[in-house]
Design a protein that fits this description.
The structure is a single chain. The protein has 180 residues and is an alpha/beta fold. It has one domain: Isochorismatase-like (Rossmann fold, 3-Layer(aba) Sandwich). It is built from 5 helices and 6 strands, in the order βαβαβαβαβαβ. The protein has helices at residues 29-35, 55-58, 106-112, 125-138, 157-170; strands spanning 2-8, 41-47, 83-87, 115-123, 142-151, 173-175. It has a 6-stranded parallel beta sheet. α4 (125-138) links the parallel β4 (115-123) and β5 (142-151). α4 packs parallel to α5.
């Protein structure tokens, strides 16, 4: 069996200066770049919203398909990604979890490549990272969350910390990048 790195939604619109920024979203990029070579499989998810979606009733317009905001930041070594998953692609689709990708079934991809352990990084802890981790656990994958490679929008700091508590309670292990 093998392991994989799953990078959740590290996109321009979730970094400082973007439409829906995690205040320190750019600070996780060097951590992610540093650990990329530790994994045989690197998977990245991205919000890939249409211009009109119910998702924008709750959130500011962000990560619209083919926009600069939907791109990966230039500093992120995205050329190392084996797979890019698009989520939130339909007008009635929030797409909080990478397991909701519409261009590839993540669970099937992981199983077909004999991946049983996921290491998760990304943006935003309180929503997409948390939902992806909870789904990974539901599908039976051993799931590690790399805390220094995850950031949140931090509407309330306790929401950020509670996201990690919820992931741990569900069975994920929270680690730091130096523990890989």
């Amino acid at each position: 069996m093998s392991n994989a790195l799953l990078i959740v939604d590290v996109q321009n619109d979730f970094c400082p200066g973007g439409a829906l920024p995690a205040p320190a979203g750019d600070k996780i990029i060097p951590v992610i770049n540093k650990i990329l070579d530790s994994f045989p499989y690197i998977i990245a998810s991205r919000d890939w919203h249409p211009e009109q979606t119910i998702h924008f009733q709750k959130w500011p317009v962000h990560c619209v398909q083919n926009s600069k905001g939907a791109e990966f930041p230039q500093e992120l070594n995205s050329e190392k990604f084996n797979v890019i998953l698009n989520k939130g692609t339909a007008s009635k689709d929030d797409g909080y979890s990478a397991f909701e990708a519409t261009n590839k079934n993540l669970a099937e991809y992981l199983k077909s490549n004999k991946i049983d352990k996921l290491y998760v990084t990304g943006l935003v802890a309180e929503y997409c990272v948390k939902n992806t981790v909870l789904d990974a656990l539901k599908y039976g994958f051993k799931t590690m969350v790399i805390k220094d490679a995850v950031e949140g929008i931090r509407e309330k700091d306790e929401d950020f910390e509670n996201a990690f508590k919820e992931m741990e309670k569900a069975g994920a292990k929270v680690i730091m990048s130096n523990e890989i």
